[in-house]
């Protein structure tokens, strides 16, 4: 498929940001996050409206919503600790794609998704003074299908914030009249500390480099129900049982490489784990880190792994959150990081996980229907742009009852992982999202 840039411009907020809001400080939790880019692509079937009307509607609604999500239209300050909310705007590109969206989705090529985003996404991103905090590209296919890609700086937004922004933008585009305004309380809850910026170094110490292979495993709702029954755990979640199976398969690959133990680690949304819970519309990064470890055993009991994952997730509770609140929160944050990081750094084999389940991204409707698929194109791995391995990204399936697992492993691990009988029993490998 060939692509042609139709036009590009900076979309600015429809109203200027008030003077008292023009310096947006990163929170202590934002400081911990590395300056990586987070790209997501949403695919839509053909809208009834013509493309010019669609583009005008998207630009106008984006301009309106940026007045409320005003940091996104700004630029990072020189010290990287705040955003200058100067209304410079968000780069907005429109691209014409030769080909049909349905042809792309019949046999999706993960590498093709990289051509649908406004810039290349690599792991060695620098913060960059005056760099854009978000970028958007609208791709029009010959058939009328549309793919909308958004790239965010992780420094200012986690997956929940990105999902909230997309739904707010879409609601504005379809003139829903719903009052949408993010909550900017993170700066007061978790005041920034200059020393905290040094903690981002731990990311490099955890990530492992190597020649990788990527597969997408889709767990249907029926398969997840079977896994839940198999776990013998009370009310297990979709994420818990899918992660436990993936961990079990990773153990088999780890054993084949002579490793004696393994660990699974993932960030957890803290908004609903505080008491009382923080509002779901809190802007920024509200993530706590978990780690569950186990000796590698070929016949490891499935329910035991589910329990290990649940116990690790449950360490992110209101006590965990309270330690980090306020001016004294720096020591609490360091303490919270210390336990999982010690486990991770001492572990023999580490599988890192990010879950984008239950973020509501399949509810994004700009007025022509909800997405038929969505992807994170940074999971479309190759050794040049994304050389890190042993990473899993979980996403909802279209109707919200299944899970897609994008798994990036060392090539020799993938050969073993792929052939584990249980995985072949419960998951489809690289199916069409149209199936």
Can you put this structure into words, describing what you see?
By secondary structure, the protein is α+β, with helices and mostly antiparallel strands. The chain folds into 2 domains: 3-194, Chloramphenicol acetyltransferase-like domain (Chloramphenicol Acetyltransferase, 2-Layer Sandwich), CATH 3.30.559; 206-429, Chloramphenicol Acetyltransferase (2-Layer Sandwich), CATH 3.30.559. The chain is 30% helix and 24% strand. The protein contains 13 helices and 18 strands. The protein has a 7-stranded mixed sheet with strand order 12-11-13-16-17-10-18, with helices on both faces. It has a 6-stranded mixed sheet with strand order 1-6-7-8-3-14, with helices on one face. A 3-stranded antiparallel sheet has the order 2-5-4, with no helix packed on it. The longest helix has 19 residues, at 238-256. It is globular and about 60 Å long.
Compose a concise summary of this entry.
This protein is α+β, with helices and mostly antiparallel strands. 30% of the residues lie in helices and 24% in strands. Helix 3 links the parallel strand 6 (90-97) and strand 7 (134-141).
Throw out a few tags for this protein.
seven-stranded mixed β-sheet, 435 residues, alpha+beta, globular, 18 strands, 2 domains, single chain, six-stranded mixed β-sheet, Chloramphenicol Acetyltransferase
| CATH T-level fold name of the largest domain | Chloramphenicol Acetyltransferase
CATH architecture label name of the largest domain: 2-Layer Sandwich
Described by the principal axes of the CA atoms, the overall outline is globular
* Count of alpha and pi helical runs: 13
Q: How are the strands of the largest sheet arranged?
A: 12-11-13-16-17-10-18
Number of strands: 18
Spans of at least 5 consecutive residues whose pLDDT stays below 50 are none
The pLDDT mean sits at 89
InterPro entries: CAT-like_dom_sf
GO molecular function, one term: acyltransferase activity
Keywords: Acyltransferase, Transferase
Family: Belongs to the plant acyltransferase family.
